[in-house]
Amino acid sequence: MRAYLPLTLADTLELNASRFGDQLAYVVGERKLTHAHLLLRAKKIASALERLGVRKQDRVSMLSMNSIEYGEVLAAGQLSGIIIATINFRLAAPEIFYIANDTAPRVLIFEASYLPVIEQLRAQLKTVEHYICIDGETEWATSYEKLVGTGDESGPAIRAAEDDIACLIYTSGTTGRPKGCIWGQREYRQLAQILACEQRTGSADRALLVMPMFHIGAMAIQLAIHFRGGAVHLHRQFDPAALLTTTVRGKITLLHLAPTMVQMVLEQPGIDDMDLSHLKTLIYSAAAMPGPVLQRGLKLLGNVFLQMYGQSEVITAGLQPEQHLPNGSAQQKRWLTSVGHAFPSTLLKIIDDNGNDCAISEAGEIAVKTVAMARGYWNNHPGTLDTFRDGWCHTGDMGKLDENGFLYLVDRKKDMIISGGENIYSREVEEAVLSHAAVSECAVIGLADEKWGEAVCAIVVLRKNQSIRENELIEHTKTQIASYKKPKIIIFADELPKLATGKINKIELRERFATKKIN
To answer: What is the Cβ-side half-sphere exposure of residue 269, based on CA atoms within 13 angstroms?
Structure first.
């Protein structure tokens, strides 16, 4: 019998340094780091942390925007078996404290811009023994480069094993406190392999990431690009003009954007005259792509769009570029509203509240079983038991499967609106609103209604130089969905609040409009 190979991401780092050593691993502005140099830096950082007393499976927290240092620290953890716990830099001080306190890190690595927050929290962070500042130092924080300088080029004495935990990645907290998803070396590497296959990327590819690396989305794509020795260009934040400049100059072959970002990029002046012929893949996720935006993108860029669906716990499905056929048959057009088929080595099913399989086209909760998913939640046994049962991840997302195995998202289970005893799925209403050419963005929530229990409310952002009256837009939705599902009220807004993942923050919207009166 052939032996099973217990490979880790440490093996990937070493293979890249051997096979693609002179090729770029990271690019940030004028700064560049090859795969050989990435391995060397990872060895020195892991060795330096070991000398500070950090042991295998101890935690090191990272509070930073996208940077080469971020990639180096992730690589040091992948090499050594030290757990890297990422922190959302957009959070308020109490939220940062909650995550840092939950992971109990021995070391906290941060950017100087977060010094005021760390100073505020330092007395409460009882487990942190060493503070490392990426771009500066204080009397209580060592500079990052000084830390690297104390490391050994031969690397740490410890080495990652496939059973080790690699990362703790916290959810965005859309349904309560953020939960720390435990990603192991084995599952992490399988994730990289699956996505490298889905993205169809190799050593010549160059990805540009503007999504934050503290989240599974950007991190997973980075892993997939590096799985075959490609290069990752990083931006610290999303700027559509800067993104296009880098895409053209760097001959970027892969982008990862939320649909709202895609729209902003496509609306940039002069884009029609730019040479974007080298762009092979544009991954979009977090929300459905409005039809007019997708049509414009396909016309300008060609068949490059790849829809991917997942969450911090599990990456599940994708709609491949060749399945984006807006001018195809009625069935093929329907595929565009799906998130595609389950990824390789992934099983999914739709279940009812009793755990029974739903019929084709019947809505229920999406459950996923795969070689690449989180092992559970850190310090949260009840949450783990609730979500990860019998080898399946119960996503909390509502969906349905068609006769060809395409998965259609319906709603978050907790976002479902019950009006007059009828279940109304917000995503279905959002798609109906978004089908109007004047609409740029839409979020649907339920508002308290004395007669019906809840009323459907759509918060809408219009496209530039477009206008439409509330009653006209409501009437339009009646041509797309049943009348009882149509919005009772439409609120026009200049913008919608977003999470770091690009998803719309419905918790904030519910709080903002909780007292809105229904006519």
So the answer is: 0
Task: Measure the CA–CA gap between 230 and 397, rounded to whole angstroms.
Answer: 33
Average pLDDT over residues 167-193: 87
Per the structure, the complete domain to which residue 356 belongs is given by 339-415
386 lies in the same domain as 474: no
My answer on whether 49 and 185 are in the same domain is yes
Same domain? 348 vs 439: no
Which two tokens mark 222? Answer: 């980075």
C-alpha to C-alpha distance for 466 and 481, rounded to whole angstroms = 23
| 70 lies in the same domain as 19 | yes
Query: CB of 109 within 8 A of CB of 144?
Result: yes
Q: What is the pLDDT of residues 57-113, one digit of tens each?
A: 999 999 999 999 999 999 999 999 999 999 999 888 888 999 999 999 999 999 999
Task: List the structure tokens of 413.
Answer: 């289970």
Place of tokens 């069935």: 331
44/36 Cα distance (integer angstroms): 13
284: which residues sit within 8 A by CB, 6+ positions away? 256, 257, 258, 259, 262, 305, 306, 307, 308
Handedness of CA 234, 107, 84, 53 (dihedral sign): positive
Q: Does residue 37 lie within any of the structural domains?
A: yes
Is 312 strand, coil or helix? coil
What pLDDT was estimated at residue 291?
77
How far is residue 484's CA from residue 457's CA, in Å, rounded to a whole number?
A: 12
Q: Could you tell me the CATH number of the domain that includes residue 76?
A: 3.40.50.12780
User: CA–CA separation, 117 vs 138, rounded Å?
Assistant: 14
Residue that terminates a domain, selected from 389, 415, 441: 415
Same domain, 149 and 82: yes
Q: How far apart are CA 313 and CA 268, in angstroms?
A: 34
Number of domains in the chain: 3
Torsion angles phi and psi, residue 367, rounded to 5: -120, 140
Q: What is the CATH number of the domain that holds 368?
A: 2.30.38.10
Three-state secondary-structure class, residue 318: strand
Q: What is the pLDDT of residues 457-502, one digit of tens each?
A: 999 999 988 999 999 999 999 888 878 889 999 999 999 998 776 7
pLDDT of residue 411: 72
CB neighbours of residue 351 within 10 Å? 15
Structural contact between residues 398 and 188, judged by C-beta atoms closer than 8 angstroms: no
DSSP state of 448: E
- Contact call for residues 100 and 87 (beta carbons, < 8 A): yes
Strand partners, 34: 24
Tell me the pTM. 0.85
Same domain, 104 and 184: yes
Helices (H), 388-463: 426-434
Element (H or E) spanning 393, and its range?
A: strand 392-401
Q: Is residue 272 part of a domain?
A: no
DSSP 8-state code for residue 6: -
410 and 421 in a single domain? The answer is no
pLDDT, tens only, 222-248: 999 999 999 999 999 999 999 999 999
What is the DSSP-derived secondary structure letter of residue 173?
Answer: -
